Amino acid sequence: MDLGNLGLFKLMSRKMDWLTQRQQVLSQNIANADTPDYKGMDLKPFTFRDALSDGRRLETTATNPMHLAGTRGPGGLNKEQRVRNPYETKPDGNNVVLEEQMMKVGQTGMDYQTITNLYKKQVNMIKSAIRGGG
User: Fold this and answer.
1) pLDDT per residue over 13-23, tens digit each?
2) Residue boundaries of the structural domains of the chain
């Protein structure tokens, strides 16, 4: 059984890949904290909606004419997100704030550990189901 073909495991693997890439970007920011004119970078946030938008759209179907049409328009809920630029620019043009980068590194590490634990629990659940026979 290849766990990589199961949707939940694919999603967890993608999240772990994103977290690994983010850790690399944040470490580059920290390494260049004193480099003149260096601009701190970050990855686009990993969202559940983006992870599932691989071209497959599930539409609701009214099986009974008495069903409600629904309150969501096409495209789902659209929430406006205000982008906040947390960086301060130093006189030398560098905008990396070490405290913020270290907080992001810590949060990324905790997220990675959470996904790893979830992955382990899912594997153990599948093993238990296989051994138990039902």
Assistant:
1) 899 999 999 99
2) 97-128
